[in-house]
Structure formats: C-alpha cells, structure tokens
Design goal:
Helix content: over 70%
Number of strands: 0
Largest sheet: none
Structural class: mainly alpha
CATH architecture of the largest domain: Orthogonal Bundle
Order of helices and strands: HHHHHHHH
Strand content: under 5%
Number of helices: 8
Length: 178
C-alpha cells in the first residue's frame, strides 16, 4: 500500500514537472503576472489531483490539463482584475534582453519587445474566447485541431475566433488612416 502511494506521488510529481512551465507561460500570455500565473498553475494541479479519477484512459492528458488550466487562469484573472498593475517582471524582461544582446541585435530586440508589449496590452480588446484561441494558436503555436479538442469547439469555430482576434488586434495596433 505504501509503495503504491509512493509511486502515485512520483508519477504526479513527474506530471507537474513536465507541464508546470507551460501552464505558467500560458497564464502570463493571458495577462497574469508571474506570481498570479503560478497561483493558477497550482490551482490547476490541485484540481487534477482531486479529479484524476474522472480522467478517461486513452484520452489526451495534455488536452484535459489545458482545459483545467484555462479555467483556473480565468478564475485567477477575475480575482486580480480589480488591482491590475504592470508586473515588475515584465519591466525587467525588457532590460535583460537589452543587457544580453550585442550591438547589432539591440534595435531588433527593442522593436520586438515593444511590439510584444503592445500586443500584450491590446489583448484586452478581445473576447474571452478570442483571447484564448489567439494565445493558443499564435503564441503557443498549437494546431486548430488541438485547440478545438481542448476547448470543445469545431475547427471552423476556432478559425473564426482566431481570424476575428487577429483582425481586432490589427485594427488596434495599426489603425487605418482615412
């Protein structure tokens, strides 16, 4: 009995190690600070541990976990929305890029960091569904099929949300002059 529990803990720890960074990164891409993304990640794994008996053998664990993580991230966003501020780690990200780059790369890194910051700031104009589809498709480079399976949407619906998100971001970042 004790050996079985030890094996279960080891397996669960391996799952956490394998997927933790991806969930934290997803949370940050969805607008959470690193600390809030870590909280959402922890909440995700608590739910996985609590509901692992509901997981259907033969299905994709990654997709199941992603669905749980997305809900935990949105729950965390709701909790912290009232006190929204720019996390310090994002400010320091740009500084570390500048310190690590050589003189020829400096302008390119600065422009990339500025564009990434503008895109991150503009994600607020997207609906909840558009934002998650955009982050999964364009930032995490998941396939339309994978996103559909995670979110329970048809591939056509995923493409429609992605197209709508891209258009809104295009309009926001590059307004047309008339």
């Amino acid at each position: 009995m004790a050996e079985r529990q030890s094996t279960g803990r080891t397996a669960f720890a391996a799952l956490v190690l394998r997927y933790e960074a991806r969930i934290v990164w997803l949370g940050q891409q969805m607008g959470l600070s690193r600390e809030d993304a870590l909280d959402a990640c922890q909440e995700s794994f608590i739910k996985v541990f609590k509901y692992i008996h509901r997981f259907e053998t033969g299905r994709s664990f990654f997709k199941w976990l992603h669905r749980i993580a997305i809900h935990a991230i949105y729950d965390q966003r709701r909790r912290v929305r009232a006190g929204a501020t720019e996390p310090l780690d994002r400010v320091h990200e740009g500084q570390s890029i500048l310190m690590e780059s050589g003189p020829g790369d400096l302008q390119q890194h600065l422009e990339s960091a500025q564009l990434a910051a503008r895109v991150r700031e503009s994600l607020g104009c997207l609906s909840r569904r558009e934002r998650i589809v955009f982050v999964l498709r364009d930032l995490q480079e998941m396939s339309t099929e994978e996103i559909g399976a995670i979110l329970g949407l048809s591939q056509i619906t995923v493409r429609r949300h992605c197209s709508s998100a891209r258009q809104k971001l295009r309009d926001r970042l590059c307004p047309r002059r008339t």
